Each structure stands twice: as structure tokens, then as C-alpha cells.
């Protein structure tokens, strides 16, 4: 409580002159600190790297000392009620409070929340499932980046834009062999953007329909060298077997290599040939190719 006292004093300088002097004294008795208030400057959006000041105000007699806290952890203690960030960072966001105290008591303020806005951090891309990816399975690519406000995401395959929006997940409901390749993402908000490193998606699949070729492709003459080649797109790589169609239900393989080589082809080698391509995911049989050997 504050009390006011008035004192009256007559001053006489001579027999003829005197003066009435009135003195008012304002006395404040000792008092514990009142409930502190905490203010933030600037009061608008706080962007990473900017200067920010927290001010704790509390009426007390004698003047209070102040202690600053973040999430109830002590930060600073002293006579000033100011806590200053010369260049605030995203790690500084959180709830702050102060305590004012003198020899007559102490009291804590309520919390004030500091929200620091910042550009996206370097993103990471993960693939699920992380084990072997087989054609036809469901696959998710996830882009993770810390940002405030939340980022929008752009997805790329081999640097070609695929999708842009708020979703940080790129989903394949039934992935195909054509989807294999290198993927990356770019998170962005109004404070910046950053590109992730690329992640490779390897899709395993059974052999596609094999194709065959004959060399030389011109007329085949008895005694010449002839090579048949079987090729099939497969992951993992296919193993090949060559057959000659002769009506025998128990056909015997001619070769287990991608190429069937005749170093000196004979007229008896004329006929229809085919190959198979096989890996652990499946087996495909080619169409027939006809070889007609001319006698010299």
C-alpha cells in the first residue's frame, strides 16, 4: 500500500517576512513482486535469424530480480527482465516464462509460446518396403523434411517432375518394371526450398517375351558360321535354354547360353528353333524362328 504524508514548515527570514513550506512525502512500504507479464517483440511472425526480445515486467519494492525459463529449465538469472535472441533459430521455439523475486517473495509468470518459422531442412527419402521390390507390389516413397510452416512437396523421377502438392508420400499401388529408376523430392515453403538426394528404386520382375535374331540375316549356306541369339528383359538377369522343335515331347537342350552357335552349319540343322528365359520370378518361351540351310 502507498501512503502520502504532508509536512508544514514556517520559515522566517526577518521580522517582516515569513514563508510556509509544505512538503508531501510518498512512502511505499516493502512489497513482494506482483504477477509478472511476459511480452514478445516483434509480436508478428518470428522468422529464423531475426532479432527477438522477451520482456518480463513485475511491480515490486524493492525492484525484483528475474529468472528466465524455457520449458521449466532455467536459462538466465539477473536484475534485468529482458531475454534477447540476436539471431533466433528453430531450436529456440518453445514455451518461455519468468520468475520475479525479492526478499519479500517470488512469483512465476504464465507461459508465452515462441513459434519460429523457417525454410525446409535437407529432406531424406525412404522406400517401403525396404527389402526386394517385386513387380506388382505396393510401394511407398516418403519424403521427410522439418519445416515451419509445413512444406509442399514436388516429386521427381530422373529430374522429371511427377507430382506436386501437400502429400509427402508417393504411392505405387502396383509397381511395374517401367517404374524403376532414381527418385527425389523437393520440399518448399515461403521461406525456401531444397532438393533431396536421389534414391534408387530397383524393381524385380520375371522375364518378358524373349526376342531372337539370326546372324547372318541373309541366306544361310551349308558350312557357314551361324549364330542365334535369345534376349529377354528380366531382373534379375535371365538364364537361357535353346531347343529345336522336332516333335519329341522330351526335348533336349541344345545350349544353356544366350547364343546358339553353329561353327559349320549343315542342312540337317534346318528346322524351327526357340528359346526360354527364366529367373526365380518366372519363365517365358519365345516364338519359333525358322532356319533354312541351302546346300552348296
UniProtKB/TrEMBL annotation:
SMART domains: IG, IGc2. Gene3D superfamilies: Immunoglobulins (2.60.40.10). Pfam families: Ig_2. It comes from the Eukaryota. Residues 36-113, 123-200, 207-290 form the Ig-like domain. InterPro entries: Ig-like_dom, Ig-like_dom_sf, Ig-like_fold, Ig_sub, Ig_sub2. This is Ig-like domain-containing protein.
Amino acid at each position: 500500500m502507498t501512503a502520502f504524508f504532508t509536512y508544514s514548515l514556517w520559515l522566517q527570514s526577518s521580522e517582516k517576512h515569513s514563508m510556509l513550506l509544505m512538503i508531501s512525502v510518498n512512502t511505499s512500504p516493502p512489497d513482494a513482486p506482483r504477477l509478472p507479464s511476459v511480452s514478445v517483440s516483434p509480436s508478428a511472425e518470428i522468422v529464423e535469424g531475426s532479432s527477438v526480445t522477451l520482456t518480463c515486467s513485475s511491480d515490486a519494492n524493492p525492484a525484483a530480480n528475474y529468472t528466465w525459463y524455457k520449458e521449466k529449465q532455467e536459462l538466465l538469472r539477473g536484475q534485468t527482465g529482458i531475454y534477447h535472441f540476436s539471431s533466433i533459430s528453430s531450436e529456440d521455439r518453445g514455451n518461455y516464462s519468468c520468475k520475479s523475486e525479492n526478499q519479500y517473495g517470488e512469483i512465476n509468470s504464465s507461459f508465452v509460446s515462441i513459434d519460429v518459422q523457417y525454410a525446409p531442412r535437407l529432406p531424406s527419402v525412404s522406400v517401403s518396403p525396404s527389402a526386394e521390390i517385386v513387380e506388382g507390389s505396393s510401394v511407398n516413397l516418403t519424403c521427410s523434411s522439418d519445416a515451419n510452416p509445413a512444406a509442399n512437396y514436388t516429386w521427381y523421377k530422373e529430374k522429371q517432375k511427377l507430382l506436386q502438392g501437400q502429400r509427402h508420400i508417393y504411392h505405387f499401388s502396383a509397381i511395374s518394371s517401367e517404374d524403376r529408376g532414381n527418385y527425389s523430392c523437393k520440399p518448399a515453403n515461403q521461406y525456401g526450398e531444397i532438393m533431396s538426394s536421389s534414391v534408387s528404386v530397383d524393381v524385380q520382375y520375371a522375364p518378358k517375351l524373349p526376342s531372337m535374331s539370326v546372324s547372318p540375316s541373309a541366306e544361310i549356306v551349308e558350312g557357314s558360321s551361324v549364330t542365334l541369339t535369345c534376349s529377354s528383359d528380366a531382373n534379375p538377369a535371365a538364364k537361357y535354354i535353346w531347343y529345336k522343335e522336332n516333335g519329341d515331347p522330351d526335348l533336349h537342350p541344345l545350349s544353356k547360353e544366350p547364343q546358339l552357335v553353329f561353327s559349320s552349319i549343315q542342312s540337317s540343322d534346318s528346322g524351327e528353333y526357340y528359346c526360354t528365359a527364366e529367373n526365380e520370378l518366372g519363365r517365358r518361351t519365345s516364338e519359333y524362328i525358322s532356319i533354312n540351310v541351302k546346300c552348296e
